[in-house]
Amino acid sequence: MSDLEVRQLRYFVAVAEELHFGRAAQRLGMAQPPLSRAIRELERQLGVTLLERTTRRVALTSAGEILLRDARTALDAVTAAARRARHAGQSRPALRLALKADYDGGLLPRILAAYRDEAAALPVELLLGGREEQVPALRDGRADLALLPRPFDVRGLDVEPLLTEPRLLAVAATDPLAAHSRLRLADLAGRVLPDGRPADRECLPPLAPTDSRDDDRPPSAHLSATASPHRFRDQTQIFSLVELGSILWFPPASIARRHPRPGVAYRTVSDLPPLELALAWPQESRSPAVAAFVRTALAIAGSVYPMDRRDRADRTAEASA
Q1: 230 or 63: whose pLDDT is higher?
Q2: d(CA 21, CA 173)
Q3: Which element (helix H / strand E) includes 288?
Q4: How many other CB atoms are found less than 10 A from the CB of residue 175?
Q5: Mind listing the pLDDT tens digit for each residue in 260-307?
Q6: 112-137 pLDDT, tens per residue?
Q7: What is the mean pLDDT of the chain?
Q8: What contacts 289, CB < 8 A, 6 or more positions away?
């Protein structure tokens, strides 16, 4: 069997995702007959049936489902390789660090200042995005390194914990909850977070985005009909909605310190898990600049949060004993 070509995988993924040869051909910018021939040739080459075709529908076989999964991974890897090669070949390369604004435990200015003195240092380009955007940026080659809160999908990544810090409840200063100096998650029943999760069940995965028809649903007691929670990613928007009493938020303590607002009260929630911040980078990375940044970040975090580093080392030692 000859090796598969990237072109063949792109054709197959388009058909497998659309489950319609006409739509797939339109998506690929080609005519349908050569696309159909290409898929038949792919099946002949592999010796398996990938798609069940009838006059009414196209469906994936079990072999097709496996190829779709692996083809997506392969195409992502090809795209990432091209991006990384183009970036490495630039006359003035940079270290691309993906992160969410303010989610650095207050350490980033110190890390950057110390990193400049490293022999392998490159200029640092910050790629700011929402909380779910850092890992995709690592996988598709847009970023060399990410600073992000755990948990996240660590497959194919090297990860180094940086620090752990408490999270607080951000609530409108006029909210009855603000009258309490200390709360529990159960006290937040009926309230929602910016991504739509119930505040009292913080460990649940975020709600999946819905289409505009969901905006017609009746508002809850603490969420206006215009505050579609899963749409708010910008920190300024989140602060404004907290002040209005539409949502609650669990920012790390470092953000609370940097952003005091008269309309927002910060309160302790005794059973709220802390935020763990970590550095992540592709396992295949051999970049001296990435290694130097990781060393620098760990040294800075260890000097600012020495007890946190020692506690983590103790827990690691206990777990391996």
Answers
A1: 63
A2: 57
A3: helix 288-304
A4: 19
A5: 999 999 999 999 999 999 999 999 888 999 999 999 999 999 998 765
A6: 999 999 999 999 999 998 878 899 99
A7: 84
A8: 95, 120, 121, 122, 144
pLDDT at 132: 81
Beta strands in 121-269 (DSSP E): 124-128, 145-149, 157-165, 169-172, 182-183, 264-269
% residues pLDDT > 90 (the chain): 60
**Domains defined for the chain, CATH in brackets:** 6-86 (1.10.10.10), 92-161+277-320 (3.40.190.10), 169-204+222-269 (3.40.190)
Q: What is the pTM of this model?
A: 0.62
Report the sign of the C-alpha dihedral through residues 128, 129, 134, 138, in that order.
Answer: negative
Query: What pLDDT does residue 284 have?
Result: 87
Task: Please state, in angstroms and rounded to a whole number, the distance separating the CA atoms of residues 247 and 192.
Answer: 6
User: Measured between alpha carbons, how far is 70 from 64 in angstroms, rounded to an integer?
Assistant: 10
Structural tokens at position 317: 């030692």
Extract the tokens encoding 1: 């069997």
pLDDT confidence of residue 77: 76
Are 103 and 149 spatial neighbours (Cβ–Cβ below 8 Å)?
yes
CA separation (Å) from 305 to 240, 301, 312? 31, 6, 11
Please choose, from the candidates 267, 90, 86, 71, the residue with its C-alpha nearest in 3D space to the C-alpha of residue 187. Answer: 267
Cβ atoms of 69 and 16 within 8 Å: the answer is no
The pLDDT of residue 226 is above 80: no
Three-state SS letters, 4-54: CCHHHHHHHHHHHHHCCHHHHHHHHCCCHHHHHHHHHHHHHHHCCCCEEEC
What are the CA-CA distances from residue 299 to residues 19, 115, 305 (Å)? 52, 10, 10
CA 225 from chain centre, in angstroms, equals: 27
Residue 120, SS3? coil
Angle at 274 between CA 268 and CA 280, to 5 degrees: 150
> How large a percentage of the chain has pLDDT more than 70?
83
